[in-house]
């Protein structure tokens, strides 16, 4: 299965790329702006990844990258927040979390990529919750733009019945070992909690593998306190498709 990982140089994207590359089931491609940085981040895994130069803020680079893929996993997030007028804006939430995701989803849908997995964020529909207020204030309304990015994925993929999207909204992200605690999947964006980035990667992989019985689905994930089940299909079995 050919999978394009976008955002593989850090965070959840790095964990996704490493996880998929460790399996013979996947042929991993990584969309990167800086080859040296990506190679360094992936370390020994870089030998198992094929790099494709591209940038989500440059739509013309995305169509060739998506061609022939069986899945796309998008984990991108803006590095900057607010900027003064006249500054370079391409690394702000509007251009990354919204327009960048939009460009990528449209390119993937046009290329008939069967599965599109977006890692978004818990709390995007609750702008007045304390955590959301802080994040939006400090990081340039990032959750507002992430929600618009989600809508863009739905719009692009809803036009093709044979294609499917999976929007994952993790809670607070932690750099901890995955597989230590149960993953709780819910819908409605009502919960709070944290989750290991490696567990987010496991759920993204599960979506690619068809372990989520529904496509065109949006859900939140956090870690519980109990030990994890051996089958992630159990975690995702109750999810319902978006209306």
Automatic annotation (TrEMBL):
<dbReference type="InterPro" id="IPR016040">
    <property type="entry name" value="NAD(P)-bd_dom"/>
</dbReference>
<protein>
    <recommendedName>
        <fullName>NAD(P)-binding domain-containing protein</fullName>
    </recommendedName>
</protein>
<dbReference type="Pfam" id="PF13460">
    <property type="entry name" value="NAD_binding_10"/>
</dbReference>
<feature type="domain" description="NAD(P)-binding">
    <location>
        <begin position="7"/>
        <end position="209"/>
    </location>
</feature>
<dbReference type="InterPro" id="IPR036291">
    <property type="entry name" value="NAD(P)-bd_dom_sf"/>
</dbReference>
